[in-house]
Amino acid sequence: MTRRIEAGPVLVALGALVVLVSVFLDWYEPNVTAWEAFEVLDLVMAALAVAGIVAAAGTVRPDAAVIERHQLPLVVVGLTVVVASQILDPPPAVAGDPILGAWLALGGALAMCAGAVLTLGRVSFALTVEGRDTRRHVSAVDARTDPTTTEGPAVRPGD
Q1: How many domains does the chain have?
Q2: Which domain holds residue 109?
Q3: Residues 6+ away with beta carbon under 8 Å from 100
Q4: Against a cut of 0.85, is the pTM above it?
Q5: Mean pLDDT per 10-residue run, the chain (159 residues)?
Q6: Is residue 42 a contact partner of residue 35, using CB atoms and an 8 Å limit?
Q7: What is the H or E stretch that residue 127 is in?
Q8: Cα–Cα distance for residue pair 131/101, rounded to 1 Å
Q9: Which among 48, 35, 44 has a CA at the least distance from the CA of 93?
Q10: Helices (H), the chain
Q11: How far is residue 131's CA from residue 147's CA, in Å, rounded to a whole number?
Q12: DSSP summary character for residue 135
């Protein structure tokens, strides 16, 4: 069975998962997570990341689509703008520079952008997954009566 997996929705889903994980990591020095630093934007980021996962799942399985395919760029651009704005202009309560969580969120958002371009653009990049072929029994091979080379001569005498 051959299954074709489009790379665009996979990138969108992976990027959204990275953004979700980054919300729980430290975004600013010293040890300030996104949940602690932002008032409402942390919830917006989490909601947009979940919406990205749902939209990616809808492009893979159109019968299970909750968010339509043409709304994916809105979700991705919204999330990217929120993440980039918080890196460029940190909240007033934070005194430190952006660290790991912020940069992971930006990377996840950019991966989502690339996935959205692949999903909606005319560029197609897909992975083909095929099942393993089982061995077919051939009567000439399976009905051997000759001894193997370890048990007897490699060639029968007289041939």
Answers
A1: 1
A2: 2-129
A3: 22, 25, 26
A4: no
A5: 73 93 89 85 92 84 74 91 91 85 94 89 68 62 56 60
A6: yes
A7: strand 126-130
A8: 38
A9: 35
A10: 7-22, 34-37, 41-60, 72-88, 100-120, 139-142
A11: 34
A12: P
